[in-house]
Amino acid sequence: MRPSGWQVMAGILVNAIYAMKNYPMVMVNTVLSPLSFLTVITFVSKGQLIGEAIEGGFIMSMFQAGMSLQGDLSHYKNDFKLQDMVVSTPSSPVAYVAGMALGEIIYSLPALAVLVVLAAIYINPGVVGALELLAVLLLMFLGSVTLGFTLSTFSSDIIQSFAFSRLISTLFSTLPPVYYPITYIPLPFRYFAYLSPTTYAAEISQNLTGMVQLSSLEIATAWIILAAVSFVLLLISIKQARWREI
Q1: Fewer CB near the last or first residue (10 Å), C or N of the chain?
Q2: CB-count burial class (<10 Å; 0-12, 13-18, 19+) for 182
Q3: Domain ranges for the chain
């Protein structure tokens, strides 16, 4: 295996396997966060929005997984000086962040597994629909990972990192209409929802499963905006992240 491959594996071990093996209770939050909102929305809507709520759970899980990277990287950087050690080696920031990011996905597997089972029962999107939904979630994850990494390089304290991570996660995965159709928001306030990229991810997902009906132009626009946001965040991460200025 190449050195970059070992760096990715090390990131997964440090950021996921160690905590999951030694402190299994820490995974409870990753399961409860998306499923609690799903349960509330399902009960309030008397089951009518269970499909939208399941898709919202996927979006929330992937976005929060990416943003969790901020707190974890800040912790390793400031408390264990891990980033200092990585900087002094031939390892690249890409391999380091990729390992940590994959660790976040593995860390979220219990919640994702439950959502996959629920999706198979209540949504059954088919192979093509499932692949398109996966593409949406990966774009959402890429954007949140790059944002989390950039913010972690500027953070000087783990408490500060957790505060920003929770704030951003709330703003982008709870307040926007990811667990229900955007049509439930009164029109004067609906425009504010479009400021969040998760709104476009939810619209694409809900259209794929037939829960909302959007025109080809609206779908194309949503894809373009979602991809553009992820690309811009990636550029910002490449240009602005303080990899060696620790």
Answers
A1: N
A2: middle
A3: 3-240
